[in-house]
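Write out this protein's structure.
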Amino acid sequence: MKVWYFSLIILIFFVSGCGSNGNGLEKAGILLPHPIDDQGWNSKGYQGMLNIQSTFDIQVIIKEDIHTEDSIFTSVKEMDEEGVTLIFGHSSLYADYFMELKDQYPHIHFVSFNGEVEGENVTSVHFEGYAMGYFAGLLSSEMTKTNQLGIIAAFSFQPEVQGFKDGAVFNREEVSVTVEFVESWVDSTKAIKYFHRMKEEGVDVFYPAGDGFHVEVVEEVKRSGLFAIGYVGDHYDLGEQTILTSTVQHVEKLYEKVVNDFIEGKLESGNHYYDFADEVISLGEYGINVPDEKRDWIEKAIKEYIETGKFPHELK
């Protein structure tokens, strides 16, 4: 397999620290499934590694657009040759590949996101997507004027989709939620086609749950004078009149926790789950069209969830 450096296929960044931090971790690496400039999931992974570099004084190696078996296996081999001992795979797609590679590289700890793993030196960290979707749906059901909400998601396995539906319908039974799956994180053309179809059907609040097409969908929502929920990052800056709030995954905080646990010898193998209470998931800044009383109502519901572990419908 050919490895193209500084190209659109595979781009490698070396961000040098000041040397060893004296605790056994000198180099960490990350594989990103798509380019780092997506204003979403991959950008947050990139920023998370920069934070690690500055916080822990280590060298980080970042490879973007790595999503095929050959590119993953080649990248891991190259990182091993560079002396990397902690590798993040910034997607669920890496979980199965890391399961294949872990025995070949027992001196490397592999960390992926939202996949299922087992065995030594391999960990999967999971964001509780259902919870963030639930509270987004709760707020959306309060803000709709047509009682028509729309989710444009990447894949059916995303738990935030069911969470959004459950939160919306619990709050207002008369609300209808239309769901379409793009079957891709990055196919903005298909996502926008779904947007226009939903718009014609009367949908006035949209949740574009795909980190590679969400920005394009929000721009269409903005041009139509409708509302949207941001995804992965805080997207208030995409339009304060358009964005009601965002479902934010604080990847950088979770990365720092994983690295700190690794350094202290406390990073456990297996599957681990993180939620609002862990401060790695939150809602973002509220748009100017969200009344103060609705903001307070949502924040109270989230606080009760953190304290009790129960959603509003479970507290009835």
